[in-house]
Every structure is written in structure tokens, then in C-alpha cells.
Amino acid sequence: MRSELRWAVVAGITVAVIFAAIIGAALAFQMNPPSNIETIDPKTLHLSGEFTEANLGTAVDPGGQVVSRVIATQFAFQPRCIVVPRDAPVTLRFATPDVIHGILVTGTNVNTMIVPGFVSQVHTTFTRTGDLLMPCHEFCGMGHSQMWATVRVVEPQDFKPDAQGRVSCAQS
Length: 172
Ligand SMILES: [Cu+2]
Known about the structure:
This protein has 172 residues and is of the alpha+beta class. 16% of the residues lie in helices and 33% in strands. It is elongated, with a radius of gyration of 20 Å.
């Protein structure tokens, strides 16, 4: 009975410490769970709206913000390569028509899951130029290990949007 009580106190303290760490991190470092909830119909995302083929890849919106849109699908990313400028705020937006995928960009803290029915959005700034590997990090089926893309970070002066504000790996 004594030892049961003692262990209950130990468990209680452990929970309290973990809870305090979560609250502390949220208040001190603004480390919060993702709060951007945007839904999208996975059955029609390629037919209309933001994630149609012509809209995929990198574009500079009228406000000057660089936005890159990528579809993650079994077992490839569309497009397979995106261009972004160094030292500029970039918004990455992902959606999937099939199953859960995920991405990380090697050497950066960019990391998100891509869940059917939702748009995953990441704001970041890339600080080094080069071709960064962006693999799928959520097992999505037999071709999972073949599923990756490239994030091409270029010098700001080499980032040249065309008349429509679009930039692709083919032109850089
Ligand atoms: Cu995948």
C-alpha cells in the first residue's frame, strides 16, 4: 500500500513536469502544435483551384511573397523540383489526393506531414544555396523509398520569375 502510493506520487510528479515543460515551451519559445487548419477535397484537388497542374511549383504572388505548391502522391512529388531564392521568406504548400505522406528538407527544420483532406503549409527562409533533398518521410506504400523531390535554393539574383511570376527548375 505504501509503495503503491509512493509510485502514484512519482507518476503524478512526472506528468506534472512534462505538462509544465509543454506549457513552458509554448510560452517561452512559441513552440505550439500546428494551428493552420485548411481543408481541401482530395478527390478534386487536381481539377480545380490552387493545386491544378498549371499552379504547381514556385510562383511569386502579387504581394511579392514566394509560394511553392506541391502535390504528394504515390509515389512521386509533382513537381519533382522546386526553385526558391536564398534569404527570402518562402511559403511551401502541400496537398495529397491519396494517402498520408510527409516531407522534410535535408539540412533545414522544414518538416510536415501531408494528410488527405488538408493543406499543409510551412513558412521558412532558406539560408544556403544548393540542391536540397526533400524525401517523403511517411511510409506510404511499396514505392515510398523512391519518393523524393529537390528544393533548389538559388542566389536572389538568379531567381527570375517569368511574366506570370512563375519559376521552375527547368529554367534555372
Ligand atoms: Cu509518400
